[in-house]
Amino acid sequence: MVNSITRYFKGVWYAVIGRTQKQKRYTKNIKVVRAAFDTIIRIKQEEIQRCKYIAGHTLARIEQKKNKLKNLIDEIDRLRELKADATSKSESVVDELRKAGVSDEEIEQHPDYIQPIAATKYFQSTLEAINIRVVNLEKEIEREQNIVEYQKLEIQKFVRSIDKLEIEQSDTIDDLKAVRDRAHGYDMLSDITIKNRSKVKKS
After folding, report:
1. Cα(127)–Cα(72) distance, rounded to whole angstroms?
2. CA 102 to CA 113: how far, in whole Å?
3. Using CA atoms, how far apart are residues 72 and 192, in angstroms rounded to an integer?
4. For the chain, where are the alpha helices, taking DSSP H only?
5. What is the pTM for the complete model shown?
6. pLDDT exceeds cutoff 50 at 8
7. Which segment, 19-33, 79-93, 172-186, is predicted with the most confidence on average?
8. How many Cβ atoms sit within 10 Å of the Cβ of residue 13?
9. Dihedral through CA 118, CA 124, CA 125, CA 128, nearest 10?
10. Pick from 48, 95, 100, 149: most CB atoms within 10 A?
11. Angle at CA 44, nearest 5°, toward 164 and 171?
12. Per-residue pLDDT for 26 more than 70?
């Protein structure tokens, strides 16, 4: 009789201990899963910040280059006016010298003609050099705008990924909790069965 009672209490004790260990294991698993999701989400949030940093610095460079481009375009307009003035001046000199009976060969050697012609050539070569800089600068701006657009797409991708992960995290934890609760219910039913069997044996 004593041995039966001892075995009964030992069975109940082991059942309680086993249930407690299961509960701890399930709870630990839930914490591990939550931490794993949180880690991945944090990494993606850090990637978003990195993309924002790159986009911000790139936008600052774009603004600087746009200002430089504007200055170059203003310089082009100024040089075109100067070139037009120099060309007009050289044409006026030619007309005046021809009216004075100076030959074309002498006109080409005349200081009043050489000076505006030299200025016209200088303005033209300067314009060509600046135009090359403008083209290169426009290409740089376009490349950096593409970088900004790419970073924006990356941010959107990471945001969508985080939203999806948060939903998966919630669903996974809910599933684990459901499994834990079902296991807890099974353990309680097992205890009731054990007690009922013990009562039957006693009677």
Report:
1. 10
2. 12
3. 89
4. 2-99, 104-109, 111-202
5. 0.67
6. no
7. 79-93
8. 10
9. 180
10. 48
11. 30
12. no
Q: Which two tokens stand for residue 15?
A: 């059942």
Between 46 and 37, residue with greater pLDDT: 46
Alpha carbons 56 and 128: distance in angstroms, whole number: 33
Token pair of 37, please? 């999701």
DSSP state of 1: -
**Predicted local distance difference test score (pLDDT) of residue 108:** 86
User: Residue 107 has which token pair?
Assistant: 């006109």
DSSP label at residue 100: T
Which amino acid belongs to residue 166? E
Q: Which amino acid type is present at position 78?
A: R
Torsion 69-75-79-81 (CA) sign: positive
Q: How far apart are CA 91 and CA 117, in angstroms?
A: 9
